[in-house]
Amino acid sequence: MRVFITGASGWIGSAVTDELLAHGYEVTGLARSDASAAALEAKGAATHRGDLDDPDGLAAAAAKADGVIHLAFKHDFSDYAGAGRSERTAVQRMLEAMGGDRPFLLASGLMKGDLDRPLTEDDVLPQHGADAARGGSENLALSYADRGVRAVALRFSATVHGMGDPGFTSVLTKIAKERGAAGYIGDGSTRWPAVHRADAARMVRLGLEKAPAGSRLHAVAEGGIPSRDIAGAIGEQLGVPAISVAPEDAEAHFGWIGGFFGMDADATNERTRELLDWTPTGPTLLEDIAAGAYALPE
């Protein structure tokens, strides 16, 4: 099976690429740079040169593949609305290029909005249209399930962790070192879901193989870790105290990530585990922090 992966050289995408190659798939990865292309080719993957601002090129690559896993996103927080519009255009062009019962798996997030309970796989995200977060791409993609595409949403935890993770937990660790304290917002009761990178990659492969059209899969191993526990683990690893930051001071203390760290984003994984026969086996987030996954140079 020939699979086209956007974001194939990224944190999650490189693990997914390794997972698919190890199971006999032919992988073509989107590469923006010579370094990304070389890294993919060294693994045994083919490359398609381009980026998310080349929707025609993405459509051509999608048309040649037996399936698509779309993991790339322009993480430009200075123009997040523009990044969302680019995302929507790229997704729409790839979907339009696909025909038959081919799988299209799309990276999304666990944005539960005003729900007063954990987000489930049955919950529809409220983001619709080009001006919504991520261009409303999850709902756009799933709408193509009625057009013969095996569209599947991959809802990744706030932190997909592991040694070398450059994501949110790494950013929080750097802020804690700079501030001399690991902060959490308010009473620290807001929760983040988490999953180890290897478990997430295995879930993506199983979703490619098993998930029916219209599925929403939760890459969640831990449904909700209190932010005060995350801060406490970071503080212990760095040797600094964990402190409460008032909500009105969150932006000044944390910068752009404060809004994300203050969200209550707990989620379930029961339907995903049952549908895919998937059981997370990797270390927990707090275990990874304690093991030095986010250790910073002196």
Automatic annotation (TrEMBL):
It comes from Saccharopolyspora gloriosae. GO terms for cellular component: cytoplasm. GO terms for molecular function: aldehyde dehydrogenase (NAD+) activity. InterPro entries: Epimerase_deHydtase (IPR001509), NAD(P)-bd_dom_sf (IPR036291), NAD(P)-dependent_oxidoreduct (IPR051783). Gene3D superfamilies: NAD(P)-binding Rossmann-like Domain. This is Nucleoside-diphosphate-sugar epimerase. It comes from the Bacteria. Residues 3-211 form the NAD-dependent epimerase/dehydratase domain.
